[in-house]
Hints:
Elements: E1 10-14, H1 19-34, E2 42-49, H2 57-72, E3 77-84, H3 87-98, E4 102-106, H4 121-128, E5 133-136, E6 145-149, H5 154-164, E7 173-180, H6 188-195, H7 212-235, E8 241-247, H8 250-260, E9 265-270, H9 284-291, E10 295-300
Helix pairs in contact: 1-2, 3-4, 5-7, 8-9
Amino acid sequence: xxxxxxxxxxxxxxxxxxxNSLAAVKTVRDMALAAAHCTECQVKILGVLPVSxxxxxxxxxxxxxxxxxxxxxxxxxxxxxxxxxxxxxxxxDQAATNHPxxxxxxxxxxxxxxxxxxxxxxxxxxxxxxxxxxxIRAPYRRINRVLVVTDGSQCSxxxxxxxxxxxxxxxxxxxxxxxxxxxxxxxxxxxxxxxxLPDDVIDPSIFATRDVxxxxxxxxxxxxxxxxxxxxSLLSQGIQAKKLxxxxxxxxxxxxxxxxxxxxxxxxxxxxxxxxxSWLLGSVSRKLVHYAGCSVLLVKQPEAxxxx
Length: 308
């Protein structure tokens, strides 16, 4: 657990009565326990009453009251509100109005039977919120293993700094990962393997002017520098992390590593998307929210917030 003054003081917690929502409440409880010394910490618990469910106001209050009970039992200062409207729209409006340090939301709501689909509430909040968003997956599990992802960008730097100051429980196991892009170096071996070309088709002399090994070593050194810079930020808060350098498609490697190593939370940067760009597939952050088997915390680059 770190003791930096850059702690998360104000949270916006979305609650809808689903299993993922309950897991989010319990995760916020764990954060409060880890940051017990923070007297300024406050959690606003937000419920959204769907437009079509106006007559069920009392029913939708039940999970809010239960969330208040769980958190207040551990000394957390809470307030709550139930607002009628469309979930993503209400959450984004509340985030823009209240400027929380973090939004916490379940990965799937009560009606999301097929997981997070394009345009789902969690996805919309991740893409357009003005602050970091923590997407929690059920069933609840305490965050014991954390994977911090870095690509060397300013956006990634913000995510590492956020991770370094997050209220994790003592004894959390940290992993720091950088994924190098797939190699663009074409060698006779690569061409022969991929295209099944006979040896006499390829003239080795055309590769003679390139020092392929030097290019690969340079890429490895660059990746190691990115890891070292990120690790310095973690070490400044007393966090010892296992450093890893992988190569391949970033989202694929991150998700596979998280699965293989029983990671509970992935932390990564997210550049934010404009309303038009949000319909384009392929971003690493979107793939993590869609396909990672654990919770995901996405941190946006400050200058990207206005366009998200």
